[in-house]
Design a protein that fits this description.
alpha+beta, ten-stranded antiparallel β-sheet, 6 helices, elongated
Length: 391
């Protein structure tokens, strides 16, 4: 694989790497006929991100050497990020960037051609891997918001950097509310400051959502994509369903597209986070006919809608639009297509910085089913394909 990036596109590529670094510690790089794919997933499998750069994005693009299969690799995010650490330097001094994969030496070579004939060469070691893909379909989400990234960027600006989650909802009067989310403390006398921003319907290019709906998701990952979209002057689309179902954040133009899939908080009631609309004080409708109210955080979790379909296929068909996610052995509980046992909750992955708190967010890719045909036809399913190994 060999590609050449020139001009302002070098900074665009670097900005995309910065956005991906907010999610995962490993970067999956895969050259495709449709373009160069950069993907990552966090350790708890609650956030996934993918950028696809079309061949026209590059001055020169060759997915594979003639007669050879395309290489795909996995590298440490920290190593790749170090190449594009200073975005100001990329814009002022770098004229072009050449990226090539050398399968014989297992090296990813990134060469920066700077002004005055200076060349900086980075040789990064990598591991062969299977394709990282998450299967999702924004068309199945009933609620859609689309607005210029600048509008949403100004809305999240007042929120403190340390804020973990934010609630997005539709208030009465068709106004979109962004509100800081705070977990209820055991001591009810402790009151945290709550920040709320309201955006009018006229600021949105598309607002297809009923009043009263609301989801809560991680702000850190959202800010990553939002920052990229603002710098590229793109519109951001948000596709979501009921609380607990994954939300899809997407950007797209003729040269690139990006998708961030984030877990949402699963709460039957919004408690103190209720928006002004009285509709939000009603419990979310049961997602299964056999669901019964319970105080457990996952009582209303329609887990089957985004459980993992464990498959052994190594094919990469449709990899452009279907971003595969490999599970570590500890995240593959044995479970039948029916309701899972309580032991699954004990196998929940531990929380890492920048990821949702435990027993509040269900991992997008937690659990397994042997027969995908038994999965309910609910909206916004997220499936993942098991790889044959990490390396």
């Amino acid at each position: 694989m060999k590609c050449l990036v020139t001009g302002g596109n070098v900074k665009v590529l670097g900005k995309a790497v910065h956005s991906l670094s907010r999610i995962g510690d490993e970067l999956y790089l895969e050259p495709l006929e449709d373009g160069l794919s950069l993907r990552t997933v966090n350790s708890s499998r609650s956030a996934y991100a993918c950028f696809l750069f079309a061949p026209l994005f590059f001055q020169q693009y060759q997915a594979a050497t003639p007669g050879q299969d395309p290489l795909r690799c996995k590298i440490l995010m920290k190593s790749f990020l170090s190449v594009f650490r200073s975005l100001a330097m990329l814009e002022k001094t770098v004229e072009k960037c050449c990226i090539s994969l050398n399968g014989r030496s297992s090296r990813l070579v990134v060469q920066l051609h700077c002004k005055y004939g200076v060349r900086k060469t980075h040789n990064l070691s990598f591991q062969d891997c299977e394709s990282l893909q998450a299967v999702f379909d924004p068309a199945l989400c009933p609620h859609v918001l689309r607005a210029p990234a600048r509008v949403l960027g100004e809305a999240v600006l007042p929120f403190p950097p340390a804020l973990a989650e934010v609630t997005l909802g539709i208030d009465c009067g068709r106004r979109v509310i962004l509100r800081s989310y705070q977990e209820e403390e055991a001591d009810s006398t402790v009151k945290a400051m709550v920040t709320e921003m309201s955006i009018g319907e006229e600021d949105f290019q598309q607002l297809q959502a009923q009043e009263g709906v609301a989801i809560t998701f991680c702000l850190k990952e959202f800010r990553g994509l939002l920052s990229f979209a603002e710098s590229a002057n793109l519109s951001l689309s948000i596709y979501f369903d009921a609380p607990g179902r994954p939300a899809i954040f997407a950007i797209e133009d003729s040269l690139l597209e990006g998708h961030f899939v984030l877990a949402t908080l699963l709460e039957p009631y919004l408690h103190a986070q209720d928006l002004r609309s009285p509709q939000l004080q009603r419990p979310a409708p049961p997602l299964q006919a056999h669901s019964t109210p319970h105080l457990d955080d996952f009582a209303f979790d329609d887990i089957d809608s985004y459980m993992i379909a464990m498959e052994t296929s190594v094919g990469s068909e449709g990899s452009r639009a279907l971003p595969s996610i490999s599970l570590s052995p500890g995240l593959q509980p044995h479970c039948s297509p029916g309701p899972c046992s309580e032991e699954e909750d004990a196998a929940e992955p531990s929380t890492v910085p920048g990821t949702p708190p435990p027993k509040k967010f269900r991992s997008l890719f937690f659990g397994s089913i042997l027969a995908p045909v038994h999965s309910p036809q609910g909206p916004s399913p997220v499936l993942a394909e098991d790889s044959e190994g990490e390396g």
